[in-house]
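Postdoc handover notes: sequence design on the structure in folder B. Input tokens:
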């Protein structure tokens, strides 16, 4: 069978023995497990390595065996012959792996597409590490990981790179490359890491493999594998630890919990969601102890603390949300606009974007937080956005927080009444840069600013129409900045006095080696919510 891993055999042992005898064996002794496979038909580490979900004494190390990453045979994901494979890993305190501080083994199994998630603990806080995997005669590249500072550490500065919405068909991943060049302490992924659809658009610069919308586990797996074969994304993951949440396109455009844009029966849609979440798990460095999928459920929301400086709440804006307001066929699935007159349901106080349980988890965490800055990293636009239509009527997009205004008000009230220290919201989804004041009452010009929102543009996905959105701005004076014509990412530098946000824009995301520049910078001073141009 072409493309399939050779089974360990007597002949292989003889070959390996011969290689050792002639001095050709390149691997250190600990990697030469008896009966270890020889990878004859492709590099099993072709999808690279990743680290993420750091704690003060560890992190998650990820890889997935896939010598043939886009295997079309669902029985052999990644072109791996059904079996259990023993991987070895080593962790060092130097980038050339001279000083090894940890060695271990893990098993890769077919049920999770031969991915492994090593949840490391017991390391020193606040320092870098380097790691590598091996399996049989193959070794991965060396990756970089780091532990969080201890909770009582005083952290002078933190650099975060914030990314969202990387559509493989719409552009190249130059944003990921430039972000890696800037060496942030951590990369924050806000969702739409893959796009499930196929565009068949003449503007596309490259094509999703399989040529069909991802709806099943093998198709979602191939989508992630194709994205991870991109050299810029692969390099970012090898070099920069990450924390992640998702948005809609990891499953289906504009889905909400069990409700699809296409009006599938919820029971059927949850089967699709289970496949999509599992593929997400299989490809992301998330904690197995927290995020192991269970049918259609997978916990992704989590909290990360950087000493006394920053706490980040990574939120899940999709899995637990109420159905979109005024959902129903033929044309009210997923995102659409609604006015108060046509859709009073939108303001129903029982509706929630995070789900009541996650809301409470967020509020409790914020109330207990002792850090200078409190970042809320999540998928969709939070600021109110009044969209005036041709008849002068005000409408609201129901797929972001504008579809859940009561839940947004509960959160803003909690930030305000709880005197949460320096809340800053980071958002994605809308493929454009925004700097917004989050006000206690968006409809009252005199109402105080409670928090600051930075929305990052897409890595590559096509933008909303600029001219149309610019016309909305006079009705939304709390929007300090809007630009949809640029692709890129956001760099945040945080210290005790201020956050500096730099909107980094690509010259042209349809050119692989395109350059990056700073479009606009903003500063938020500690104790003074609201973004000020720098
Ligand atoms: Fe997107
Ligand atoms: Ca989205």
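Designed sequence:
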């Amino acid at each position: 069978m072409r493309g399939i891993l050779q089974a360990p055999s007597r002949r292989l042992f003889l070959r390996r023995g011969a290689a050792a005898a002639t001095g050709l064996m390149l691997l250190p002794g600990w990697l030469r497990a008896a009966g270890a496979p020889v990878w004859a038909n492709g590099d099993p580490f072709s999808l690279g390595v990743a680290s993420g979900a750091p704690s003060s004494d560890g992190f998650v190390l990820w890889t997935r065996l896939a010598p043939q990453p886009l295997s079309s045979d669902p029985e052999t994901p990644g072109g791996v012959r059904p079996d259990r494979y023993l991987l070895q890993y080593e962790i060092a305190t130097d980038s050339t792996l001279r000083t090894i501080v940890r060695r271990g083994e893990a098993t890769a199994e077919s049920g999770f597409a031969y991915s492994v998630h090593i949840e490391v603990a017991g390391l020193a806080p606040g320092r870098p590490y380097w790691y590598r995997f091996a399996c049989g005669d193959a070794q991965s590249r060396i990756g970089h990981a780091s532990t969080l500072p201890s909770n009582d550490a005083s952290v002078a500065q933190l650099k975060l790179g914030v990314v969202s919405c990387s559509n493989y068909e719409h552009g190249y991943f130059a944003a990921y490359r430039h972000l890696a060049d800037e060496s942030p302490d951590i990369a924050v992924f806000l969702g739409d890491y893959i796009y499930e659809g196929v565009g068949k658009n003449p503007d596309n610069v490259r094509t999703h493999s399989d040529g069909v919308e991802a709806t099943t586990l093998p198709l979602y797996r191939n989508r992630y594998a194709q994205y991870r074969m991109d050299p810029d994304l692969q390099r970012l993951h090898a070099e920069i630890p990450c924390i992640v949440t998702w948005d809609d396109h990891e499953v289906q455009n504009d889905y909400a919990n069990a409700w699809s844009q296409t009006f599938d029966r919820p029971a059927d849609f949850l089967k699709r969601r289970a496949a999509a979440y599992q593929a997400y798990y299989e490809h992301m460095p998330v904690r197995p102890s927290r995020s192991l999928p269970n049918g259609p459920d997978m916990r992704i929301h989590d909290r990360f603390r950087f000493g006394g400086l920053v706490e980040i709440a990574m939120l899940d804006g999709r899995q637990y949300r109420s159905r979109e307001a005024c959902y129903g066929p033929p044309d009210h699935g997923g995102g659409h606009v609604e006015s108060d007159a046509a859709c009073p349901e939108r303001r129903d106080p029982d509706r929630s974007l995070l789900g009541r349980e996650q809301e409470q988890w967020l509020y409790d965490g914020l109330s207990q937080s002792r850090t200078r800055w409190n970042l809320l990293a999540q998928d969709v636009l939070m600021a109110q956005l009044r969209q005036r239509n041709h008849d002068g009527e005000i409408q609201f997009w129901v797929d972001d927080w504008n579809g859940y205004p009561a839940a947004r008000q509960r959160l803003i009230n909690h930030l305000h009444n709880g005197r949460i220290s320096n809340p800053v919201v980071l958002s994605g989804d809308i493929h454009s840069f925004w700097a917004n004041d989050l006000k206690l009452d968006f409809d009252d010009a005199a109402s105080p600013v409670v928090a600051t929102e930075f929305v990052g543009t897409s890595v590559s996905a096509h933008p909303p129409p600029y001219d149309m959105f610019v016309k909305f701005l006079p009705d939304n004076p709390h929007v300090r900045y809007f630009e949809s014509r640029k692709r890129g990412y956001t760099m945040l530098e945080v210290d005790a006095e201020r956050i500096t946000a730099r909107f980094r824009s690509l010259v042209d995301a349809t050119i692989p080696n395109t350059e990056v520049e700073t479009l606009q910078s903003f500063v938020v001073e500690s104790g003074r919510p609201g973004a000020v141009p720098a």
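Context for whoever picks this up: The domain at 149-533 is CATH 3.60.21.70 (Purple Acid Phosphatase; chain A, domain 2). Don't rerun without checking with the PI first.
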